[in-house]
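During the reporting period the student researcher (J.K.) took over the structure-prediction task from the postdoctoral fellow and processed the backlog of single-chain submissions. One of the processed entries is reproduced below for the supervisory committee.
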Amino acid sequence: MADTTPSLALPLIAGGQAQKHVTHNEALAQLDALVQLAVLDKDRTAPPASPAEGDRYLIAARDPSGAWAGWAGRIARFQDGAWLSLTPRAGWTAFVADEAEPYLFTGSAWMPLRATLTALQNLSRLGIGTGADADNPFAAKLNKALWTALTSAEGGSGDLRYTLNKQAAGNVLSLLCRPGSPPAPRSVSRATTTFA
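J.K. obtained the following structure tokens:
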């Protein structure tokens, strides 16, 4: 039988083991450190001078120093007056508090979770800078928007086409342009372009 659990490497109590509470408490401390993982910072290269009990840091530096020497890529937790090193596994996530940003461990490095997203498919709503709703499942509140053609060097054609489809010839396809603030009901000013 293994000495630790396969995913979080929590210590297991052996049959006939003396002082079982030590192993049990060690496992609880590791769970406390890793479940709902949130760290204070990821940019430190050495431990802070006066850490508080339970403080956790993601060690993103390649060559950390002091008590963290050799712990690049790991999670450091201050526990019982000493630093404890926790080795991440691919798929672990950590919330970095000073950036308010979630990070994902890819198996070799910590990456901002947003940077690891390469595809969003079949979303029912998407709001950019504003909330989307049932009537407007795609909503964007911004001052500028840019559409750029995928170049041939990037695997595209270099062309850019913007296509609006309607179900059938009898359906309406409109482009509405109106003032930013809602006008009074009697002074509605709107330009409408309808396509066949």
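The committee noted the following: Confidence is low (pLDDT under 50) at residues 183-191.
J.K. will present the remaining backlog at the next meeting.
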